[in-house]
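Dear colleagues,

For the upcoming journal club I promised to circulate an example of a predicted protein-ligand complex. I picked one with pyridoxal-5'-phosphate because it came up in last month's discussion. The inputs are reproduced below in full, followed by the predicted structure.
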Amino acid sequence: MQGDLPSWPPSEWYSDCAERCSTYLRNELPLSLPDGSGPIQQLEQEYSKQARQPFALACNSGTSALHSAYFALDLGPGDEVIGSAYSFHSSLTPLLHTPARPVLADIDPTTGGLSAESVLACLTGRTRAITVTHMYGYPVELDEIRIIATENNLYIIEDCSHAHGAQFLNGMPVGSIGDAAVFSLQESKLAPAGEGGLLLMRDEEMFDRAVALGHFGHRARHVSTGALSQLGDTGFGLKYRMHPLAALCGLAGVELAKKYLPERRILAEIISRSLSESRLFRFRWHPTASYYLFRLSVNARSSQELSQLYATADDRGIPLRKASMSPLTSLPAFSGQVELGRLEAGWMTTPAVVPMTLEYANQLASMPRLWALDHSDLLRELLESLLQLERDIT
Ligand SMILES: Cc1ncc(COP(=O)(O)O)c(C=O)c1O
């Protein structure tokens, strides 16, 4: 079965990129756009419209867009940003380059998203912001977190890197609620550019700081916040500009994401229906998720049973693996135990206690990447082999 698995991004994205890029190159158009015009502007407008945020900044990665978001908040020494212990590290590691530090909160095990209760428990007088990751494309409903943020004067940052096209249950797009929202356009993502990231913001003055951080020259000179525009020549010394060819590929990525979103949702329904009676495998269905990747929760009685299950799946050629994303607490940078030199003073000093995250991550399994209705038969075959596996081992 493994040999037949499709690979992402699909050929049609490569063809679209090739066409857009070759037309651009044949016309000898600029390969550096310091003013953010042309395809960069088009891409920014596209994301601004999608996320319903007025200000958009294309960056060379999701990580640099996240750094720009944190820089825009003008965090001070000792300030704290609460984020989920179950996320990709870049949701929080750019804070290493600010005087602030991350505080890892636990997840709600029913959704896999940041738990509002845990956020409350992590609040201190130094908390300045909350970062929410819509992991695997499941929107984290923000009602409670928004109340906490409003009552405590905190910013909300939405990491939408997995969630292109996802909506909250009220129909609003992810990215539309936070003071800042970030999308990664890295190759594996739903709307790939190869490498790239988008920052969306609501407040112009804050956005100007983000521009000044990584877009010195034309864009930094034209920010409207007076004091910052004096730094136009140098900005804050970093260069986070997107390559125009990446912007063109990003536009092809936008089309790809739009095309397959409804199909991925139908595949998700197939998974949900097929596994509805399973006692071993649980799948979380959500009507407006983007389903970046399909993840199952394996209800094993012990880690030994879990390892046995993966070993048997492997013997049978069933592509089921433990999900590769580990809790942030397992990474040396977040352990509080590694010398980080000068940076350490503002960083983490004690490991976080996040039992729900540990249990959730331990049970999470990855299914192969499938995204089109053409993959339904393959998906049904896989689901049948999982149910057979369950019958055989329980
Ligand atoms: C949740 C999340 N946030 C941020 C990033 C960083 O994006 P990039 O790889 O474009 O820097 C990723 C990348 O995988 C991610 O998964």
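Two points we might discuss: The chain has two domains: 10-253, 260-393. The first strand starts at residue 55 and ends at 59.

See you all on Thursday,
B. R.
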